[in-house]
């Protein structure tokens, strides 16, 4: 039986010291980081986490993490829950709606801006 685990990770920089400190939540599938598995399968020019970061745990927006977990569990998030998590007076509702409208769930996003439009892994 396959296992999926989430673990908090702190990275202290890559070989070129391009990333000083990064904190995020990594997906572990059968005890191996998902980013390592992706690197092994698609053999990108640069490792996944050199350009991207996990969508979980990278910001202090814990409500964003809650939303992503709901998406990963294939649970629908209705307008009432969205307003509760992201009050319109503090968040751009269009940005949140765009994220929810994707038919796939973004798991690694642009390390600089977090936007799925910059690339990432769904």
Which terms summarize this structure?
alpha+beta, three-stranded antiparallel β-sheet, 5 helices, 33% helix
Q: In brief, what are we looking at here?
A:
The chain has 122 residues and is an alpha+beta fold. It has one domain (4-121).
- Domain count, please report it: 1
Record field, number of beta strands:
6
Radius of gyration: 15 Å
Strands across the major sheet, in which order?
A: 1-2-3
How much of the polypeptide forms β-strand, as a percent range? 15-25%
String of helices and strands: EEEHHEHHHEE
Number of contiguous helices = 5
Classify the secondary structure makeup into a structural class: alpha+beta
What is the CA–CA distance across the termini? 23 Å
The rough form would be described as globular
How much helical structure, as a percent, in the residues? 25-40%
Biggest beta sheet summary: 3 strands, antiparallel
User: What is the typical, i.e. mean, pLDDT?
Assistant: 81
Multimerization status: single chain
Residue stretches low in confidence (pLDDT < 50, at least 5 long) are none
Structural overview:
The chain is of the alpha+beta class and about 120 residues long. It has one domain. It is built from 5 helices and 6 strands; from the N terminus they run E-E-E-H-H-E-H-H-H-E-E. The chain has helices spanning about 35-40, 50, 60-70, 80-85, 95-100, and strands spanning about 5-10, 20-30, 30-35, 50-55, 110, 120. It has a 3-stranded antiparallel sheet with strand order 1-2-3. A 3-stranded antiparallel sheet has the order 4-5-6. The longest helix is centred in the middle third of the chain and has 11 residues, at about 60-70. It is globular and about 40 Å long. The mean pLDDT is about 80.
